Protein: CBM1 domain-containing protein
Organism: Coniochaeta pulveracea
Amino acid sequence: MKFPILASLAASASAGTILWDGRFNDLSSSTDLNNWSWGNQVGPYQYYIHGSSSVTAYVNLSPSYKNPADSGSKQGAKITLDSTAYWNGQNMRRTELIPQTTAAINKGKVFYHFSLMRSDTNPPAQTREHQIGFFESHFTELKAGWLSGAAGVSDPLLRWCISGQCDKWTTTWDAGVWHNVAYEIDFTANTVGFWHSTGGDDLVRVVAPQSASTSSNGADWHVGVLELPRSGYADSNEDYYWSGVYIESGSITTSVSGPGSPSGGGGGDSSSSSNTPKPSTSSVPTKTTLVTSTTTTQKPSTTTSTVATTTAGTGGCTAGKYAQCGGNGWTGCTVCAGGSTCKYSNDYYSQCL
Ligand SMILES: *[C@@H]1O[C@H](CO)[C@@H](O)[C@H](O)[C@H]1NC(C)=O
């Protein structure tokens, strides 16, 4: 399927090819997310990991929710955990969107872009672990708050994690500061690097690619947050602001303004930054053989377990040595790579050792 995004790409000299565009430009309101269902897989996102209230309890869109430097986005998303944000009987709060695309976002070398901000209003608790922007196997993600199993009571840091190691890049997560992020994932070489900047600054590669058990079925990147429970700490309302969410191949776009523009660029409309996948210029197939209806993540209606595993039942995937392989809240692989076994550390963390 051909789709013209050349005009929008011309705006940024260093742009790669957008494989999937999750910048909320195609949504007029978060209620558009309700269009998506397992039987009607439309729009840029799958919407199914959330609590039982209406969508506006968990996801809201507004121009004021985006990084102001991001001119490629007309709006950002406020993703909320409230007292109802328990998905499907689980004991952890979570609000997550997942790319709805058949593009090859899980092949070759790709960049997963997003910008993230917190406010002083409804701040993420520093006393609980939050997994942010993660894959089912958790080979890379951000984390915020006290890490399960860590010493102490709270943790003010925002951390980038690779294979369960969360000390390669950290920053104090101050309110009102936009953190621009790109995961540089090479699914062929099995490496992940980390790009970062704040505000309107260009992205800089702050951690060179390192080996990881990169694995994704092309429909398991969680744009949102999963909070692990911790006894003795009450739920508080938490808001996470997201913008500039897209995945590209080729060379990285370092400008936070992102490729394209939601309304400019030679009279284009929002379709110029549509989620319609554009064929990659590499030899990577543009369609995966996987379909989201058989993604390893179970449909809500079929999961009744109250333990915090959304994917353990599907088995199949393998966690690398030193990677997390279990625990209350774990949604990733539970089988350990050869030479390692899954060792219990605490109720919330088991590791391949
Ligand atoms: C969702 O459905 C409504 C009503 O049919 C439609 O107006 C809107 O454009 C749809 N949104 C998307 C993103 O497809």
The first strand starts at residue 17 and ends at 21.
